[in-house]
Amino acid sequence: MKTLKTLLTTLAAGIMTLSPVITLVQAVEKTPTDSVKEDETLDVLKSEVDRKKEEMEKAKAKLDEATPVMEEVSKNLETAKTSYDLANTGFNSASQELNAYVTKEITLNQATVDEAKKELEALKNEKERLEKKTADSQAEKNRLEAEYKDMQAKYDALVSDGTVEDLNGQIESQKQAVEIAKQELAQVQAKYDEEVSKYNALTSEISSLEANISEQQTKVETLNVELSQKLDSLQNAQAVLDQAQQAYDAATDETVKSQLQNRLEEAKTNFENESLAYEEAKASLEEEEKALTQAELDIKDAEYNLQNSIESLNNTKDALAKNQQELNQAQTIIDAKQQLLDEANKNIEEAKKEVEAKKSQLDAFGKTTKDLTDLVQATKAAYDAVLAQWNQGSLGFYESIDDKQAADIIQEGVLLGTTHLGSEFDATSLDGMKRSIPLLLECNRLRKLNGVSELKTSALMMAISQVKINHSYNREGEFDSPHTHLYGGGENIAAGFTWDLESQGPGNTDGGRGPFVGWYSWEKQFLEDFYNEHPEEKDKNIWESIGKYPDLYNKIGHYLNMLSDGYTVTGAAYLQRNEYDKQWTTGEFAQEFMSDTKYFEQGYGVQSEIDENKVYNTCAGQMSVEEFQKLFDAYYANLKQELRDKKVAYEAAKEALEKHSNDKDSLEMQEIMQAYDLALTKLENAQDAKKATQAKIEKAVREARYAKDNIEGLEYNLALYQQDVVEQTKNIEQARKEVEKQRQALDMKTQNIKSMKNNVDNAKNKVDALSAIIENTKNTEMQLKNELNQAKDLVQKTKLDYDSSSSQYSKAYEDLKTLYANKGVKENVRNDLDSRLADLESNKNQASVNVENLNQFIADLKTKKSEIETVKDTLDIKQEMLHALTTDLNSDLQALGVNKEKFESKSLDMKEFEAEASRLQEVMSIYHSIVDGVLAAQMDGVTFTGEELALFENLKSAIVTLDDAQKVLSEAQASYNSQKQSYADLKLALVNAKQAYSEAKNALNQYLHLEQVVGVSEKVESENVMTVSKNGIVNTGVDLNTELYLGTLVVAGTTYVLIKKKEKEVKK
C-alpha cells in the first residue's frame, strides 16, 4: 500500500502543472486509499461531472454575452480600413505626381548639363589644341630666340672687333700697307741683289786669284825645286873643287894631308850632328804640319758655326719683328677692346635697369604657370650652368686661359682619386685658390727682404700645388711623411695657420704671416740660435753645416726652400679641410718650388704621374705673381657676380611662380612677359658681349705678355748672337792670320829643313870628299892639277846657272805674295759684304713676312667680313621668322582669350545647371524624406518653384489625411484586437470547459467499464510524441488538447489505481 501511494504521489507531482484536473489527483492523493470504498469513488466522479457541466454552461453564457460587442468592433475595423485605403490612394497619387514632376525636371536639367558638358568639352579641346599650338609655338619661339640670341652673341662678338664698314676700312688700309710693304720689299730686294752682285763679282775675282795663286804656287814650287837642284849642283861642284884643291894641297904638302885627316874626323862628327838635328827638325815639322792642318779644319768649323750663328741671328731678327708686330697688334686690340668693354658695362647697366622695370611690370601682372615654369627652368639652367662652371674650380680657370698643362695636371689629380672638383673642401675650389695667391706675394716679400730675386708663378705650378696638397691629405693609408713626392721639386707643407694674412698685421714686417710664421720666422730664429751655439759655422756654406749637422735640415728646410736662389718659379695651394677650418680660417697649406725646364724639346721636364711618356714644361706660361693674381681675380669676380646674378634671376622666377594665379593670365601680361624675356636676353647678350670682350682682352693681354716675354728673350738672344757673330768673325780673322803666320813659319821651317838636309848632305859629301881627297892624294900632282882645274870650271858654270834660277824664283815668289795680298784684301771686302748681306737678307725676309702677314690679315678680315655678313643674313631671317611666329602666337593667345571667356561663361552656366541639379536632388531628397515619414524634413534653405510648393502642399495634405486614417485604423485595430483576444479567451474557456466536461464523463464511463480504460491508457502512452502543426510550428505535444489528454490520463491513472486496489481486495 505504501508503494502504491508513492507511485500515485509521483505521478500527480509530474503532471500537476499541466491540467486543471490536478485537484482530482490531489483529492485522490488526499483520500486514504486504504479506506476508500467503491461507492465513494463513483460519487466523486459523478460530482466532478456535474461541476464541469456547470462550468461549461457558465462559459457559454459569457461567450454569448460578448458576441454582439465583437461584431461591433469588427464592423468599425472594416470601416477604418476602407477610409485608410481611400487616404492611401490619395497619398500615392500626390506622391507619384510630385515624383514625376521632379523626375522630369531632373531629366530636363541633366540634358541641359550634358549639352553644356559637350560644349565645355569642345571648348576644352579647342583650348588644349590652342595651348598645345601656343606651347609648340612658344617652344619654337624660345628655340628661335635662343638661336637668335646665340647668333646675336656671335654677331656681337664678331662686330666687337669692328663692323663690316670698319672691316672694309681696315681692308683698304691694310691694302695700302701691303703696297707700302711691297715697295719696301722691292727696295730691300734691289739693294740685296746689288750687294749679291758685288759679292758674286768679288767671289769670282777671289776664285780667279785663287787659281792664279795655285798656278803661281806651282811655279814657285817648281822653281824652288829647280833652284834647290841647281844649288845642289853648285854645292856639289864646289865640293868637288874643294876636294880637288885639298887633294892637290895634301899631295904637295904633308901638313895639309894631316890636316885633311883631322878635318875628316871633324866632318864625320859634324855629319852625325847635322843628321840628328835634321831628324829632330823633320819630326817637329811634321807635328807643325798636323797643327796647321787642324787649325785650317778649325777655321772651317768656325766658319760653319759662324754661318749658323748668322742664320740664328737672322731668324731671331725675324722672330723679333714678328713678336713686335704681334705685340703692337695685341696692344691695339687691348686699346680698342677697352673702349668696347666700357660700352659693354654701360649697356649692362642699361639692360639691368630695363630688366628691373620689366620685372616690376611682370610682378604686377604675374605670368602663366607654363611661362613661369619655363622661366624657372631657363633661369635654373642658366644658374646651373654657371654653378657647374664655378664647381669646376681651378680647372675652369685654367681652361679659360687655355693652359692645357695646368688643366691636364688637375685631370691627373682626379684620376688619382684625391682631387674632388666642386667640393669646398678641396684645394681646387675657387675660394681656396683665391686665398692661396697672397701666399706667393708673402713669399716674394720675404725673399726681397732677404735680397733674393722674386719668384715667378704659372698656372702649371698652381695646379701642381693643388693636386699635391689634395693627395697629401686625401690619400688612403698611413705614411711617414705628408710629402707625396708627386711631380718632384721642392715643397713646403704646413697646417693649423690662418690664410687671413691681413689679420696678422700689414705686409711690411720682418716676420712672416700665415704659414710663413712657421716656414720663415720660426726656422729663421732656429738658424740664428744654431749660429749662436756654433759661431764657427756662421761664415760657412749652409750645406757644409748641414753635412756636419744632418738634423739641421729638418729644422730649417722650409726656410731654405723659400729663400733658395736655385728656384725660379713657384705655386701655392690652400686646403679647407672641414667645417672647423671654415669657421676659424685655418687649414692645410703647400708651396711648390721648381726651376726652369731645360731641353724640353729633347723630352726633359716634369714627369706626369699618369702617362710615363708625358712631361711638362715649367717655362711655359710663367708670369709675375701680380699678373697672375690680376688674371685670376678678374675671372673669379666675373664668375661670382654672374653666379649671383643667375641665382637672383632664378630665385625671382621661382618667387614669381609661387605667387602666380591663373586669374592674372592675360594677353597684356604675355606681352609684358615677352618684354621681360627680351630685356633678359638683352642683358644676357650684353653680359655675353662683355665676357667675350673681356676674354679677348685677356687673350690679347696674354698674347701681349707672351710677345713681350718673347721680345725680351729674343732681344737678349739677338744681342748674344750679334756679339757671337762679331767675336766669331774676329776669331776667324785672327785664326786666319795665325794660320797664315803658321804657314809662313812652316814654309821657313820647310826651307830650313831643306837647308838642314842640304847641310846633312853637305856634311856627308864633305866626309866623302875628304875621304876621296885623302884617297886622291895617292894620284900624281899633274892629275890632281887637272882635276882641280876641271872642278873650278864646273863651279863657275854651275854658279852662273844657279844665279839665273835664283833670280827667277825670287821674282815668282814676290808675284805669289802679291797674289796672296790681293786675295786677302778682296776677302776682307767680301766679308764686309757678307755681313751686310746678312742684314739685308734679314730685312728682306722681314719685309716679305710683313707682306705675307698683311695679306693674311687682309684674308682674315675678308673671312671675318664674310662671316659677319652670313651671320647678319641669318639673324635677319630668324628675326623675320620670330616676327611671323610672334604674330601667330599673339593670334593664338587672343583666340585662347576668347576661348577662355566662352569657357568661363559656359562654366558659369554649368555651375547654375549643376546648382539646379543639386537643388532638384535636394527637392527629391526632401520628397523621399517626407514619403518615408519624415514630415518634419527641413525645407528651409532650399528654393522651390511655385508648382513644386503646390505639389508639396498637396502631398503633405494627403499625408495628413493618411495619418489621420492610419490613427483611426490603428485605434479600431487595437480595439478589435483587444476584444478579439477576450472573445477568443471566452471561446477557449468554453471549449476547455466542454472538453473538461467530456473528459469527466469519459472518466466516469471508464470507471464503469474497466476494459476501455486500459485501451485508453495504452493509446495515451503511444501518442506522446513530437509533432509539427499545420502551420509549420514545432510542438512538443504540450498544447490545450494535450492538457485535456493528460487530464484524462490522470483520471485514467487514478481509475487504474482504484481498479488495482479493487483487484487486490477481491484476491484477498
Describe the structure.
- The chain has helices at 2-15, 22-30, 38-159, 164-252, 254-365, 369-391, 394-400, 404-416, 430-449, 459-474, 516-533, 542-548, 551-563, 579-584, 625-658, 667-776, 781-931, 946-1008, 1010-1022, 1040-1067, and strands at residues 456-457, 490-495, 569-575, 588-594, 606-607, 615-616, 1027-1028, 1034-1035.
- With 1068 residues, the protein is mainly alpha-helical.
- It has a four-stranded mixed beta sheet with strand order 1-3-4-2. The chain has a two-stranded antiparallel sheet with strand order 5-6. A two-stranded antiparallel ribbon has the order 7-8.
- It is elongated, with a radius of gyration of 72 Å.
- The two termini are 14 Å apart.
- Mean pLDDT is 78; it is low at 1-32, 661-665 and 1011-1068.
Concise synopsis of the structure shown:
By secondary structure, the chain is an all-alpha fold. The chain contains 20 helices and eight strands.
Q: Provide the β-strand percentage band.
A: under 5%
Helical fraction = over 70%
Rg computed from alpha carbons, rounded to a whole number of angstroms: 72 Å
The main β sheet shows up as:
4 strands, mixed
- Whole-Å distance between the termini? 14 Å
Order of helices and strands: HHHHHHHHHEHEHHHEHEEEHHHHHEEH
Low-confidence stretches: 1-32, 661-665, 1011-1068
- Work out the number of β strands: 8
- Class derived from helix and strand content: mainly alpha
Shape: elongated
Neighbour order of strands in the largest sheet? 1-3-4-2
